Amino acid sequence: MKKFLNDPAHFVDEMLEGIYRxxxxxxxxxxxxxxxxVAKPTPGKVGIATGGGSGHLPLFLGYVxxxxxxGCAVGGVFQSPSADQMHEVTKYIDQGAGVLYVYGNYSGDIxxxxxxxxxxxxxxxxxxxxxxxxxxxxxxxxxEHKRRGVAGIFxxxxxxxxxxxxxxxxxxxxxxxxxxxxxxxTIGVALSSCVxxxxxxxxxxxxxxxxxxxxxxxxxxxxxxxxxxxxxAVVDEMMERIFAELPAGSGDEFAVLVNGLGGxxxxxxxxxxxxxxxxxEQRGSRVKHVWIGEFATAMEMAGASISVLKLDAELDPLVAxxxxxPFFAHYKV
Amino acid sequence: xxxxxADDLIGLFQRWRDTFAEQRNFLIALDGKVGDSxxxxxxxxSFAAAYDTxxxxxxxxxxxxxxxxxxxxxxxxxPSTMGTLTATGFLRGAKALDGKEAIGTPEAAAFWRAFxxxxxxxxxxxxxxxxxxxxxxxxxxxxETAAAxxxxxxxxxxxxxxxAEAELERTKTMVAQxxxxxxxxxKTLGLQDAGATVGVLLLKTMTDFVxx
Lengths: 333, 212
Known about the structure:
The complex is a heterodimer. Chain A has 8 helices and 14 strands. By secondary structure, chain A is an alpha/beta fold. In chain A, the strands form 3 sheets. A 6-stranded mixed beta sheet of chain A has the order 1-2-4-3-5-6, sandwiched between helices. In chain A, helix 7 links the parallel strand 10 and strand 11. Chain B is an all-alpha fold. Chain B has one domain: DhaL domain (Serine Threonine Protein Phosphatase 5, Tetratricopeptide repeat, Alpha Horseshoe), CATH 1.25.40.340. Chain B is 69% helix and 2% strand. In chain B, helix 1 packs across helix 9 and helix 5 packs across helix 6. The longest helix of chain B has 19 residues. The mean pLDDT of chain B is 92. Classes of the chains: A alpha/beta, B mainly alpha. Chains A and B meet through helix 2 and helix 3 of A and helix 4 and helix 5 of B.
């Protein structure tokens, strides 16, 4: 393990201390740094909360800010935060219009968010949930409820954040967030492992000449281990699975996110996007919004994921809405 | 005792606290075979906090409010899976008894049915998965049968606790499907489930309390 650390046991809390010192627009509640919230919630707005394990920055807390999320419960590396932390975040960001939970499909997170929703219900706070399950490699069509949530949740955050900022009611924000969830697909490819600080060695090993398509952001097994192919061939194989579920025809419009997993340079991500863009062009479809960079990482894992959102007249303006968070700013052009 | 009223409930939580303090090391050892050994700690802490909370609120808060407060403090105290599931059970049980002032046989049946259903939903467990549900589902069933035949609370709970113990024995023949134990699969054969053991301790303590 070669990391900047003082003590592996303090990894998450020292990371959070740095974040609060760098970004005064964020604060925390209940005297617990892991209950991260916006310093100034908007009265009357639906609150959007997320949460999950650490080790994925900018996911999850990096999207707390203007026109995106209002709070985030922060867990240990790859561990769910507690129901109590989620409940504390919920109480603070409820501004009278209720709270929507948007998070990824992992059993620990589900148990705790369900529990938090039940505690919020006792307080009289209305809570709805939208659970991201965009990873096409993690289960077959027809078994979508078993799919993991990965980088595509970015689009669900963006849509729900914009809908809440437009002061829409909880049911409507939930409907739109769920629509985004149903129309986004992601597939990833890993080139190397990640190292959890408190474990100290690689979670798994990938040979120098190998790749694994479909690997999860905690190192969950993917579809198969093969020789690393040329970039265009890798994208073709990945996009085939996306197009099988989100048909791209003439005149269709999409938003695309090419995401680095932590150990892959941006140059390579642009080489991947070049091919992604060509494939949409061949189908006569338009990629209307593009983001390329690190949005959901797995510590130092080398690799990338491609997320695609099919747009319609309702989703397009919400995806295009400006946002400003410590890790992601998007202005009107 | 023919029914558990609010002031009795505080006494019952005291007994649950004592039981899980006594069984702490036994549960740690049991869970340590295929889990992460935190079950004994989780249960001892949860019920200590629950007793302190209901004792501080007092009988005046009423039966369902006390059960709800116990569930809420458990969720706060021990954020492990079993702590969250037990908390869910008490919150759902409280909901099922809304408006009631005493737990007789029909109320006990409603409480444990809601408790078991809440755990099944939250933990996404089904019967035979080698969990606490394998004990609590037959407990609720036994109490429903007892309620239908008009049995008093003490004998009804005795019948439920007996079926709980028989079912705990049966978990030795099951293969774990949930939690860290699931990774051990066949190695869990022959071991009684630690969560199901908690279920039996809950019922036996309640039965002893009511029968005295």
